[in-house]
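Give me structure tokens for this 295-residue protein.
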Amino acid sequence: MTATLAVTPVLRTLARAEIKHYATSWLFLAGAAVTAAATLQSFLGADDGTSSTMNTITPAALIGVVGLVVMAGLVRRSDRATAAAGAVAVPERTRTLALAAAVVVPLGAALLWFAASLVMLAVRPPAAFAVPFGPVSTAHVVAVMAALGVVSAVGGPLLGLLIARWLPQRGVTAIAAVVVVVVTILLQGNFESTWSWHVVWPWVYWYGPLGWGSTGTGSTSWVALPGSPFAWIVYQLAMCGLCVVVAMWHDAEGDRSRLRPVLLGLVAVAVAALVATMTLGLPDAVHNPVAGLSF
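Here you go.
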């Protein structure tokens, strides 16, 4: 790590303040509460045979996408406080790092969801029509759950930080959240033509009753899509790092030369991890021979 990213007493103080602001945001608390309620309901509700393998959309939407909006609000709050002070005592780059540190709050909430999901996976295993099956191991399934349910809870707020730094106009964050949801729907795996490359998007389904293969009788075969979710997690984390670095780059008064090698390094890691995602793991889509219920 370079001196640009060094932890200073000022950064620690600001980070603690931003963590508190995030943890007390009503939007975050509402999203976390609904996530907890939905997770509890999955334990108490009827067994649909999928266990916790398809529950990743809950933290991704209610902690990740909501976090995009929460973080943008924190950025505006930080900038208003700086403007009210009348003098820039703390550089924007330091304030950006402090805001980035606040993602420990949604990360903690997502890890609680993940722990509960692992318990459910163990005590109420998925039915034969779901995952794991054939070459799709339990480790593969757990990696997908971590990528979609935990990493996305961090990625959403960091994307909000990036957008709020470069496009601070009101309404932009809401539009960005809608765009994220729309693109995710298009690339979630219903179109077979996207299966070989859709992992360029940071939130996609890796298995499930995907495609338009329903028999018309309410049954369908689950599909596990090609690629390696383990390498994909590295790709997601590199993209999270890029969000932070590009947000810090916005500070025109800072020394960008120190950020450049970090930026280039993260780009290299992201590209390498994306290539590994597409070339490792399952070489082709695999269909579960056991038919199950469609959604």
